[in-house]
Amino acid sequence: MAAPETEHVRNIALVGQDGAGKTSLAEAMLHISGRTDRLGTTHDGKSNLDYDPEEIRRGFTVSASIAPIQYGTYKINLVDTSGQPDFAGDTLAAMQACETAMFVIDAASGPEVNTDRLWREAEFLRLCRTIFINHIDREDADFDLAMATLHARYGSRLGAVTIPIGVGNDFKGIIDVLRMKARYYENGKERVEEIPAEYAEAAELSRDQLCDIVVEADDELMMKYLDGEPLTQEELESALGAAIASEVFIPVFVGSTLVEQGIQNIMDDIVSYFPSPSGHGTFTTADGEEHAVAKEGSPIAFAFKTMSDPFVGRLSFLKVSTGTLEPGMELVNSRTGKKERLGKLYVMMGKETQEVKKALAGDIIVVPKLSETRTGDTLSASGDVEIIQRFQLKPQYPVVIVADNRNDEDKLGEFLARQADADPTIRITRNEDTHQTVTTTMGDMQVDLLLRRLKEQAGIDAHTIPVRIPYRETIRKTAEAQGRHKKQTGGAGQFGDCFLRLEPNPGNGYEFVDEIVGGKIPRNYIPAVDKGVQDAMAEGFLAGYPMVDVKCAVYDGSYHPVDSNEMAFKTAARIGFRACCEKANPVLLEPIVNAAITAPEQYAGAVMGDISTRRGRIVGTDSNDQGATVILVRVPYSEVVTYTKDLRALTRGSGSYTFEFAGYEDAPMDVTKKLVAEYEASKNEK
How confident is the model at residue 56 (pLDDT cuts 50, 70, 90)? Predict the structure, then answer.
């Protein structure tokens, strides 16, 4: 496949709900264009694009894959994406590499929750948008209802460029409204005829609606049209591309991927009217400047995806932003400042690779073995250019992944680190308070995929355990007690004796005061008392959680000139500290978060009721630009650690939320008793 000119590249992200037929649409385009000799299908595991064992097992797309199609002198880069919320990071990264988002909608079920979310993301990314209504040959398909739903959901800029000839079992082909022809695809060939008489009126009405919208992209043409002059075919076609690029017009196609009707029409219109990277593609650098994709200038490329291939190794998917990439070229990674040498360049279709000699601006290319390059990195000749991701996803589903065999822990850590490098929606953090390494993802489906790939690719069996909540302990009263440690074993003994006073120190952390007078405890042993208290605070008193906001004073004590030493006074301080705690009204503190939960209005009541059952308090409500309800709550973190899947269930996948740590509050008595009992049981087991 020769390197296409920038003006002849079309980058299209196929997005939408799972099951609508995104992968099937790509497979149909590949087949009709001659890129493949058979129509790949997902239901029997014989898709060219859903080739990963996990995708075959699950029956849906997990990871974005590329379908490059040579169509005449044009190259169409179809990027097939996942419709699952857990893999939204990969989908959004793929969308950023494209100029157009094609939303695939099922003719029967219409746009669903994830489609709405991705539509908003496409608006934010300023992508051109188009819609393909698939499965029009299903018995329960209804084109008019689908169009009415789309208009109600996404506005009046939508217009049909194709309409069906029949629906359900009567579906035979499509009417190309732009060219005013009937198009049928039969036995691997397209047949173009005049529009059947019974569809002439519907075709004229759709064309009038098309003209009404498209002329808004050209002031001069609009004035002519408003004066009653009809548009010529040339005028309509010349205005169409500008209307799509400026997002004035959102074309709607219809067809069926199963029988490949309406697919060739889409490809014809993509190359004729959809924007090229130089016509619409832009990228934003870290300095806030926006730049156009251009074939002139020194090479700049953005790594929008990385993955590991079991045979080739690490693969980096690059969108060429400016200039030309060639094998052997040295580029600098702006994040690391290190040079990366480009080896061979490939275009990739599913798992198949084809070597190419160069890649021009606007094209998508795959480069193996870039060891320093991660998802989101920028490569350039100078290294002083950094393209920023225009989307931000914050994973909020934490788990702890533990190897079944403790000898595999190091390999497990390395594997998870590689996954986090490749996927920004996977974050690995070490919580020193709970002594756990936490893997935060988008949801349980992503966790399940990690565990399976861990087994398949690294040979490690692993499981998940709950995330420990970072509780704290403190005291509410002032108390005094003696800590005395005396041990005699025949030789030199140990002796330490100190009197401690503990008092609450809210908001000021730990404070140690030396009130010893008269040398009752030698000065060189005072730090040992301090250290013993801190060690005891780290262990906690009630349930093994660190103690905070305590002021400790050592005000009396005694020592032995031979048997006293630092270790003895550390031990005495620990004894005295625990004796004080027994009288100081110790309490357990639980972390509290402020959350903003966004849900459609019809689910707001259910969400607020659910938060109340989690000991949360409703702080207030608001509404956002989309008309959804934003519920502001204050809730214990322990009650919402795995809130992602619970909120999806409550809102049928339409809810979202953000958390912000707000501080600590006294835990209720039932929570305290439960944690104390668990702590005592674990001590007994040990």
Answer: confident
Instruction: DSSP letter for 85, please.
Output: G
Question: What is the tens place of the pLDDT at every residue in 492-510?
Answer: 789 999 999 999 999 999 9
C-alpha 547/C-alpha 543 separation (Å) is 10
- Tell how strand 158-160 and strand 282-284 pair up: unpaired
Pair of tokens at residue 355? 């070597």
Q: Residue 187 has which token pair?
A: 């036995």
Place of tokens 């950023």: 96
Query: Model confidence at 1, in pLDDT bands (50, 70, 90)?
Result: low
Q: How far apart are CA 164 and CA 146, in angstroms?
A: 12
∠ CA 60-64-66, nearest 5°, is 115
The DSSP 8-state label assigned to residue 389 in this structure reads P
Give the torsion sign (CA, 335, 336, 339, 342). Answer: negative
- Report the predicted TM-score, pTM, of the whole model to 2 decimal places: 0.87
How far apart CA 319 and CA 170 sit, in angstroms, is 43
Q: What is each CA distance from 97 to 176, 185, 302, 362, 471, in whole angstroms?
A: 29, 31, 8, 9, 43
Nearest partner of 279 among 241, 317, 251, judged by Cα: 241
C-alpha atoms less than 13 angstroms from C-alpha of 589 in its C-beta half-sphere: 21
User: What whole-number distance in Å separates Cα of residue 609 and Cα of residue 3?
Assistant: 58
SS3 for 195-238, per residue?
CCHHHHHHHHHHHHHHHHHHHHHCHHHHHHHHCCCCCCHHHHHH
Burial class (CB in 10 A: 0-12, 13-18, 19+), 160: buried
Contact 217, 123 (CB under 8 A): no
Asked whether 361 and 311 are in contact (CB, 8 A), the reply is no
Max Cα separation, the chain? 115
Number of other residues whose CB lies within 10 A of the CB of residue 157:
15
**Burial of residue 488, with CB atoms counted within 10 A of its CB: 0-12 exposed, 13-18 middle, 19 or more buried:** exposed
Question: Would you call 111 helix, strand, or coil by DSSP?
Answer: coil
| 60 close to 51: Cβ distance less than 8 angstroms | no
Residues sharing a CB contact under 8 Å with residue 36, sequence separation 6 or more, in sequence order: 27, 30, 48
Judge contact between 157 and 130, C-beta under 8 A. Answer: no
